[in-house]
Amino acid sequence: MSRRTAPEINAGSMADIAFLLLIFFLVTTTMDVDTGLTRRLPPPIEDPTEKPPEVRQRNVFQVLVNANDDLLVEGEPMLVSSLREETKKFIVGDPTFRDESMPEGRLTDVPILGQMLVSKQIVSLQNDRGTSYDMYIKVQNELVGAYNEVRDEYALSKFGKTMKELERASKVSETASLQIDAVRAVYPQRISEAEPKNVGE
Amino acid sequence: MSKFKKKKSNGQPPISTASLPDIVFMLLFFFMVTTVMREVTLKVKVVTPLATEVNKLERKSLVSYIYIGEPIKALQAQFGTAPRIQLNDAFATQNDIVQFVEAEREQTNPVEVPLMTFSLKVDKDSEMGIVTDVKQELRKANALKINYSTGKTDKIVD
To answer: ipTM score of the complex?
Structure first.
């Protein structure tokens, strides 16, 4: 009996080919994950003559950054490192809403928690055209961070979980996503950016 | 006949390299999957600032990039050192942004247009003036979802 076997293909050069491709992908690959601060711009103004709604002074937390990257918060000079704490104090405000220097409350429907008084806080950020982008991002970061921390603390005290844990749970549970909505409704992120000034150009 | 010839075992047998292609292929597939081809050649210097409260950008296909910074060294003789906007592969002015947004929208599935994000990759040494102009143009084009590209850090210094 003669059994004819097909000649085996030499696979020795396979490694070389694979190496070649490997090196190509090694060179072209960029491993960076894109991260950043996600923000929403206000929609374009349709009617420029229309007056913006009046906002009372006590509801506004004013943050100004000038062309020399100096920070002025509620009329007081401040360092970026203390901005977060001050913003948190303002966002939380006075739980009874009687303090004249802190924002007023408004009756709002909140999921799960029902009707309650929610602070009318607004953080107003104004920068100069000469402000450095680095400084602007720092300030934005601290403001967003203040909101995140306030929400985290509230979520922890009400539902026993941080926002991150709730977000993870919301993929499988309906209540968790309602709880997220509730926390967001109690502390809505209101960062308003005024048109920048043009000083010192 | 000599079917049962005994092999002479002189010295150690060579190490088999037959599994080498498998290992290399494994690495190859890993890099093929994780790789993101560079779509644009940067003409501006962009070193993004650092922040702590960062989100990851998901759905890369729905993200368009706007670069702002001073031109790279090789192009400074021609374009100077004032910060410029780069869209795709070319320098642009703020008036091109509305058109750029429209072009990007046309390339996207209409259902997913509201999910599109415009990522601003801005050099940390640039001034806010040019960034504000870009933001105003984006508002005009109704592209409201933006993202300031930043690196991640644990602590912000003054």
So the answer is: 0.75
